[in-house]
Amino acid sequence: MNFSGVAAIRLTAYTNYSLRILMYCASHPGRLVRIADIAAAFDISRAHLLKSARHLGQLGYLSTMRGRHGGIQLGMAPERIRVGEVVRKLEDSGDFVECFNPATNSCPLAGACKLTGLFHRGVEAFYRELDDTSLADLVGDGAALRDRLPLLHLA
User: Which residues make Cβ contacts (< 8 Å) with residue 22, sequence separation at least 6?
Assistant: First the structure.
């Protein structure tokens, strides 16, 4: 897909890495995978992935097993993991624009400007799309993702 010319809402790298972890695990159902394998597959720092995996485990999206033969795997069925919910839980809850927060808004146009409503509707539409998508929808049977990633070293 070509998205050139389309302005985007930017997610943090943390959320991006977290979604990649979930997709990697979903594309290897029933297997413990190692953070090292995910780091190698995506060329991402192992330390960044460890932080994301720990948080995803605390949220119940991952099941983690420590030790020499440890690893991670999905903590629930991929059909139950809604992308919108994951993004909401991982992203900074900061306001999209200043006028979203009446307590800190200093814009002199507040109350007369139509941008606030437009931005609210846009953000709601963004999350509505993500809410309509499960991890299973993203991964399918996992074959296409596995074909593009290095071979998994079983934990």
Answer: 56, 61, 62, 74, 78, 81, 86, 135
* Among 3, 9, 7, 5, CA closest to 123: 9
Q: From residue 43, give the alpha-carbon distance in Å to each of 37, 90, 110, 142, 149.
A: 10, 21, 44, 19, 11
pTM of structure: 0.82
Q: What is the 3-state secondary structure (H, E, C) of the chain?
A: CCCCCCCCCCCCHHHHHHHHHHHHHHCCCCCCECHHHHHHHHCCCHHHHHHHHHHHHHCCCEEEECCCCCEEEECCCHHHCEHHHHHHHHCCCCCCCHHHCCCCCCCCCCCCCCHHHHHHHHHHHHHHHHHCCEHHHHHCCCHHHHHHCCCCCCC
Q: pLDDT tens-digit profile of 71-104?
A: 999 999 999 999 999 999 998 666 666 677 778 7
Joined tokens for residue 108 = 């002199």
Residue with tokens 């059909």: 79
What mean pLDDT value characterizes the chain?
85
